[in-house]
Design a protein that fits this description.
The chain is α/β, with parallel strands linked by helices. It has a domain of 125 residues: Rossmann fold, CATH 3.40.50. The protein is built from 17 helices and 7 strands. It has a 4-stranded parallel β-sheet with strand order 5-4-6-7, with helices on both faces. The chain has a 3-stranded parallel β-sheet with strand order 1-2-3. Helix 2 packs parallel to helix 5 and helix 4 crosses helix 6. It is globular.
């Protein structure tokens, strides 16, 4: 990132963008840490299909910690911009105070990476053969595009293509909506007629579910929150509802007028929460209220950012007994 570009970008976004450019992940963490969740899982090595885990799920606990820190700073008299600017400077000097804070506050991430493990379980039970790049999985770099760092984004996209090509990848099953959209719309479709196929996990599930019997472990009243990238960008709207409706024990209710392509945003995504952490939180609370008004006892969504936001909204409203589940968790539980 050029110094000129950095001067035009809010410090919170500059911090995240610099992590992607220099370390190839949104938090600037070591490569080996991103794949810890999969250490006991055996993936196929004889396939040209890969499971793309993405930063959002792999760093879920760390992102919760970082957003909590930024919201706290935003409420203070000094605000969040100065500390985030200092954090970026200190990182260039070899001091990552943000990373130190996360390591102190994060207490394991077994629960937060459960959607990843459950998605793998579901795909295996559906008979899908696939591999996983592990610590060699590249960052899709989508955030660079959303905040206007087009030159850095193009360079990152070229790097992603090289990695995928070197590993003989022909098909990608994505789990994070924003990663899946970026891979599909920029990496695959703009690769000179590339035959790379990119689909989201729930699309694969819907295509392969057939007449399989699904039954959840208990009776639940579920409302589904549409992630912006999945519904408005990718048009994946009916597949989640199709799958949820096929599960015995799940009563799917609607947040009428604020669902599907008209779903109210949770306030996260595109780096918005890094620039306006307090406003992002207000939007999360508002969306959570809408979902609670349906009378549902379980909120289901399919995006790590949405999960983070909605859980924060429930905490603010004192409604933490209401469960927020990723759709991959629900399907795995029903199998």
């Amino acid at each position: 990132m050029s110094s000129k570009s950095k001067g035009l970008i809010p410090p919170g976004l500059a911090y995240l963008a610099d992590n992607i450019i220099s370390k190839h992940n949104i938090l600037g963490d070591a490569k080996r840490s991103r794949s810890k969740w999969a250490k006991d899982i055996k993936f196929s090595k004889e396939t040209d299909t890969i499971f793309f885990a993405g930063c959002g799920y792999q760093y879920s606990s760390d992102l919760v910690s970082l957003m909590s820190l930024m919201r706290g700073m935003d409420k203070s008299k000094i605000g969040a911009e100065l500390p985030m600017g200092m954090a970026g400077l200190q990182k260039k000097l070899g001091i990552d105070l943000g990373g130190v804070y996360r390591k102190v506050t994060v207490r394991g991430n077994e629960a937060d990476t459960k959607p990843l493990k459950d998605a793998v379980t579901v795909l295996n039970k559906l008979g899908i053969e696939f591999g996983y790049l592990g610590e060699d999985e590249p960052c899709c770099g989508g955030l660079l595009h959303y905040i206007g760092l087009e030159r850095d984004f193009v360079k990152n996209t070229e790097d992603v293509r090289k990695v995928l090509k070197s590993r003989g990848v022909k098909r990608i099953i994505g789990l994070v909506p924003s990663c899946t959209y970026t891979l599909s719309n920029f990496v695959a479709s703009q690769d000179g007629g590339s035959d790379l196929e990119v689909k989201h996990f729930i699309q694969i599930v819907a295509e392969n579910l057939g007449s399989r019997k699904l039954q959840f472990s208990r009776q639940v009243k579920v409302v589904y929150h549409d992630p912006c990238q999945l519904s408005r960008f990718m048009g994946v709207i009916e597949e989640p509802r199709q799958v949820l409706s096929a599960i015995e024990g799940v009563e799917l209710v609607s947040s009428e007028g604020t669902e599907k392509e008209w779903s109210t945003c949770c306030g996260g995504g595109g780096g918005f929460e890094a620039v306006f952490p307090e406003l992002s939180h207000i939007l999360a609370v508002n969306r959570t209220k809408e979902l609670l008004d349906t009378g549902a006892d379980t909120i289901v969504t399919h995006c790590p950012g949405c999960i983070l936001q909605l859980k924060a909204g429930l905490k603010e409203l004192g409604s933490e007994k209401i469960e927020v589940l990723d759709l991959a968790e629900v399907v795995a539980g029903a199998m």
